[in-house]
Amino acid sequence: MTLEQLRIFVAVAEREHVTQAAQALNLTQSATSAAVSALEARYQTKLFDRVGRRIVLTDAGRIFLSEARAVLARAGSAEVVLADLAGLKRGSLKLAGSQTVANYWLPIIAHGFQSRFPGVALAITIGNTETVAAQIHDGSADLGFVEGEVDDPALAIEPVAEDELVLVAAPGHPWTVVPPSTSEDLKSQRWIVREQGSGTRAHFEAIRALRGVETGSLDIALELPSNESVRAAVEAGAGVAIMSRLVAHASLKAGTLVAIDFALPTRSFFVLRHKERYATRAAREFLALVRGDAGNS
């Protein structure tokens, strides 16, 4: 059994499709099928059932998938240690960020890191706060950056920056003349919000409660999966929204959004890391850059 066979098996199992797995691995379909068949023949165990054009894991395949992932994770850890021994001349660092952080704050830090360590490949995935926390928990990312609260005892959580929230509306909206001051004012307009699980939505709900507005009493016009879609909807006059000033900045400057005079609390950006996983030198240097003490780590 080889690591390559395990990688192929996991790729096929996750996609339940040989052709898609082959494309993802840059292999031919025949080579991918042969690797899976070799595993099944060598151990006389059927790992997949063929159902029409699809394949599905057998019970044995599901059990083996967990073990295969664990072996590949350990192999990946060994590669990380060797890369660390070579210093920061080469290697990789996997980052995960929630949308506001990853799109508007993290790229500047990443650029600074790449300028100092061009041999280290950076990969950034974007999701909401919940998905980023899950990636750090399961080891599929080295460091996570989020704007929402995370409750996971396996993760170390550290505030690294402050973010200003702003209430925005399209030009000509009544609140640009007379800002809201009561809970009834807040209930009188339609709202555009992010999806459940996002840090921005969690802060929106906290602000709603702080202002004495009951759950379900606001008129939610749209629930959207990205900051950009929320911003576009507000610009089109579909409603009002609370978002990061980082997200609204270009639109406020262009005049397609107006910041409403409405006091909102600041929020923190947090870095997440797993307490028990090995922190590579690349991860330590990136954290030092985020904290502003690069060169002292």
UniProtKB/TrEMBL annotation:
InterPro entries: LysR_HTH_N (IPR000847), LysR_subst-bd (IPR005119), WH-like_DNA-bd_sf (IPR036388), WH_DNA-bd_sf (IPR036390)
DNA-binding recorded as keyword: yes
Domain HTH lysR-type: 1-58
Pfam families to which the protein is assigned, alphabetical: HTH_1 (PF00126), LysR_substrate (PF03466)
PANTHER family: HTH-TYPE TRANSCRIPTIONAL REGULATOR, HTH-TYPE TRANSCRIPTIONAL REGULATOR CYSL
Family: Belongs to the LysR transcriptional regulatory family.
Protein name according to UniProt: LysR family transcriptional regulator
Organism of this sequence: Aminobacter carboxidus
